[in-house]
Amino acid sequence: FNVAQAEDGSWGGEWDEWDLLATNTQGGRHMMGSLNVEVLFVGCVRTRVPPEAQAAVAEMLAVYNCVPVFLSDALYDSHCNGYGPTVLWPILNNQIPDRHAGGKGGDGTHVSSLYNAYVRANDAFAHTIRSVLRVGDMIWVHGYNLTLLPAALRQTKLPAHCTVSFFLHSPCPSPEVWRVIPHRSELLRGMLAGDVVGFHLFEYARHFMTSCRRLLGLGENVGGPTGGGLCINTGSRRVTITVSHVGIDPDVLNARLRLPETAEHEGRLREQCKVGERIVVGGVEMLHPLQGAHIKLLAFQQLLENYPVWRKRLTLLQVCFPDKQRPEQSAQQSAENREVVRRIEEAFGPDTIRYFEVGAELDAKLWTKNTRLALFRAVDVLLNCAMKDGLNLLPFEYIHTKHSQQASGVVVLSEFVGCAHVLNGCVRINPFNLEHVVEQLDAALSMPPSERAARLSKDHSFVASHTTRTWLHVAVQDMRRTAALHASGEASSSRPTLALCSFGSEMRAGQQLPPLNVEALARAYVQSTRRLILLGLDGTLIQQEKVMHHRKMFHDFSDHSLPPPPAALHCLAALASDPCNQVYVISGRSASDLEACLGNVDGLGLGAELGFMQMRPRSGKWLKRELSPAQERWKDTARPIFERFTLRTNGVYMSWQESAAIWCYHNADPDYGRFQARQLTVALKEQLKGTGVSVLHSLSKCQVEVRIGAINKGVFADAALTEAHAGGPVDFVLAIGDDDDDEYMLSAVTARASGPAMLERLRGRLFTVAVGSKDYSHARFVCESSRTVLQLMQTLRDGRDASFRS
């Protein structure tokens, strides 16, 4: 929308004629009414508006359902010409910088300031959008300049039932390229803050999902919450990934093609190019190396040199327009193009090529959408040699124009243009192979009329069925479906957990586990006198994501794994100091590791290697289970297998314990590491059959583990509960864990507590808790995360202190 100030000082504006067929929502502005929604357009005003006039401009724009985001001059300049176009756009299009992206001279010294401005611009958009949001609104964010906007909107505390969707109109590069982007993780998380992330092609969606997996450690799912779709599990929710290629609006094109102005332009072009005598090869490109105009000129020159038959029969009609955001590159590209044009004219005559640049040979005011459509009507073969172009709808316009003419036309299209993946009737070329381009162009020029018509018909079927209207309806439908899933809870990554075992009349197997009632637990805790508390460590007291990050970054550089946060240590110390409590932390870590992390907590009992080694509360001494010679021989068999797979898998390492061996691959390539882990698991199970050990592959922990089968947290928990009860009847039991190892503990505690000796005394005072989301559990209750566990421990600590004071 063009805003302008009249001579009398008043402000007005009109829709930009160029954007009536734009490649984003403006292209469907006139058809938004069919979506049964009220639409507000939010964006920056291109004209500088003084602060004192901003209210008047906002009032004028409101008539057109437009909401302006007013940025300072410096911030607006950075928003349009800074981090987005300078740093992001080249890398999104696979242009890896020599040194650091975005720096003047390539040194990257001002990337941080560009990014800070990028953040401020996204925050300004979020603030403006938040001011107009209502309950249930849908926000549709577009383009690489606003990748952080979904996250910024989340931070503003959106009204209830609002849905945020982000659509990237650019290519999304592979992880190897994406990792070059400064602030790469922040950008991924910014987009993932949306409920829906959309792309034009599956190739781009696949790259995005792989980048999220490799750089953020997030898993993706096929057949996501929308059914038959894609999604990424962020841990707390599922983000829907959609693929939908935008189209053109045939009705608008038809109206323009019928205008007298379009026919007049076509007549002039045919006269200039002598269309009656020559076949016209043509195209429209921006003056940028990636757009491939220079390659096209070189290919045309080589065609005339190698195929003399075409020298008097062809004319190349080429229009180029400057890249306003990259004027230096445009000027250089213009000079290179004109040099090739000069050589062609000298060798084959001026009638062989017609080269126009907007703003030079072609008046910018005369270059309109109608002029472009006139050019397409005059062109027999549309040639595109782009080295990378995520979204280019000009081939769509050409196909529709030729179909409306009832004329034949051939599209010769670079395979690196996004629409080449959906236009299956085009002739695809590799612009990096000039000889191949020339051969395919010759084939297109020599193509029989029947084949030309068949190819055009095939592509027009796609263009006619995948219009701007279709794209808009699909996008809004995706947002509505996601909103419905959120309302029903299905879009959450958490799912109902069902009970695997019964406990008296309070719980039945197959019943959905209820959330833990902290108040009831705290009340039972205060009213009891002999308590047993059993806690897992990684994923229970410490967030599993932080554990994995620490292992990945520091496993070889510190003498112990990640300890619990100080708040958890304080709670453990308070609970363990109560003489009424026996508190154990049970982990798969080694005894030395566990003691380094928790040995300073007085009165705390420890179970290392899933209970193979134990330190009773207030004892300070480690006790170890005895192993038979047969139980120790498995390591001799397993060691060469582990060594073979370690040698072949870069980034893995071994951790040998007294009762176990762990093959860790979280530093390996995630895909290859997972593949090797599966192969290793099969090999170990085959070779260790009958030795009494178990082989487990944990995808979440990125490890393959071999342990003695008779050792697990359940054996330890059963012994701890039996021993505690022998010293006096236990009247309160709390067991909390998050993973499959903890399920043994939860099962054993439930089984022992269900016996006649404990059932009645523990009725209403047995709390077995599963942390996180899983399908089934031996627990009686569920809680959301390790943060919830910490809050629970703080409640128990405070309740203990309150009972002492009373």
Structure description:
Helix 1 links the parallel strand 3 and strand 4 (66-69). This protein has an 8-stranded mixed sheet with strand order 22-21-20-19-18-27-28-30, sandwiched between helices. A 6-stranded mixed sheet has the order 5-6-7-10-9-8, sandwiched between helices. 42% of the residues lie in helices and 17% in strands. Residues 20-27 and 801-806 have low confidence and may be disordered. With 806 residues, the protein is of the alpha/beta class.
Report the C-alpha radius of gyration, rounded.
Answer: 34 Å
Residue-averaged pLDDT: 86
- Sheet with the most strands? 8 strands, mixed
Helix content: 40-55%
Strand numbers in spatial order across the main sheet: 22-21-20-19-18-27-28-30
What is the beta-strand fraction? 15-25%
- Which of globular, elongated, flat, extended, rod-shaped describes the shape? elongated
Task: Quickly give the structural class.
Answer: alpha/beta
Instruction: Give the number of DSSP strands.
Output: 30
Terminal-residue CA separation: 70 Å
Work out the helix count: 27
Uncertain spans: 20-27, 801-806
